[in-house]
């Protein structure tokens, strides 16, 4: 299927690693000109270099999305390089990974909200006017299954990701008549570098050989982390393919949706 994305301009925040990097590569494969974003220059430039080496088109912008002046400079840099951004993937965010209800601090919640929700708001507020004027645009906010199935730990992260789902639904209604769509993607257990490392540590702790295949590790360790009905973790390519469809002209009637990529883990199934 031709997604009709050739030559579109996309900004993918937090694309120097992980899910963001996977999305950047996936969009580039569809002919999108990708603006790779990160805070670490070397890592961000490496992702752009890898995309270009595979025949894609990529540019780099750097900036801390919790700082208004850096966000504005980043947008100015992008607009100096290319025509207006037509597609935004708000992927930057994350969690401290240590918060629990026994030690929780309000400052940690505020920081997580800033990195996830407000970072996306800063980007959207600057790029949305041009999309509305052009009569076409795509916004995808990357949330998490944690926003729908909050675990006991990391409540700050779950709350921030739930807020992203709600704000996307609001945005979708606000721009529905302007040719702009806004959707959320909520990944479950995805095979990123950090997950691979965590699974391998857990496998080693349970006596699995150091040279065990990924399929052996996955079969042994996944049930400890999540009871995924499909019996496997998702891939970065699967996330990227879903995002590519949502931002394509072919998905023009899909807006305000929250697309789960969780292998059936959501209890509604």
Number of separate helices: 8
What percentage of the residues does DSSP assign to strands (E)?
A: 5-15%
Unreliable stretches covering 5 or more consecutive residues: none
Number of strands: 7
Number of domains: 2
Our measurement of the CA-to-CA distance between the termini, rounded to an integer number of angstroms, reads: 28 Å
CATH topology of the largest domain: Rossmann fold
Instruction: Enumerate the strands of the largest sheet in spatial order, edge to edge or round the barrel.
Output: 3-2-1-4-5-6-7
Q: Which structural class matches the secondary elements?
A: alpha/beta
CATH architecture of the largest domain: 3-Layer(aba) Sandwich
Would you list the SSEs in sequence order as H and E?
EHEHEHEHEHEHHHE
What's the CATH C level of the largest domain?
Answer: Alpha Beta
Can you tell me the overall shape? globular
Strand count, sense and barrel status of the largest sheet are: 7 strands, parallel
CATH superfamily of the largest domain: NAD(P)-binding Rossmann-like Domain
Indicate the percent of residues in helices.
Answer: 40-55%
Rg calculated over all Cα atoms: 18 Å
Average of the residue pLDDT scores: 95
3D architecture notes:
- The protein is α/β, with parallel strands linked by helices and 269 residues long.
- The chain folds into 2 domains: 9-190 and 234-261, Rossmann fold (3-Layer(aba) Sandwich); 192-233, no CATH class.
- It is 46% helix and 14% strand.
- It has helices at 18-29, 41-53, 68-81, 106-134, 155-174, 193-205, 214-225, 236-246, and strands at 9-12, 33-38, 57-62, 87-90, 137-142, 180-187, 258-261.
- The chain has a 7-stranded parallel sheet with strand order 3-2-1-4-5-6-7, with helices on both faces.
- Helix 1 crosses helix 8, helix 3 (68-81) runs parallel beside helix 4 (106-134) and helix 4 runs parallel beside helix 5.
- 42% of the residues are buried.
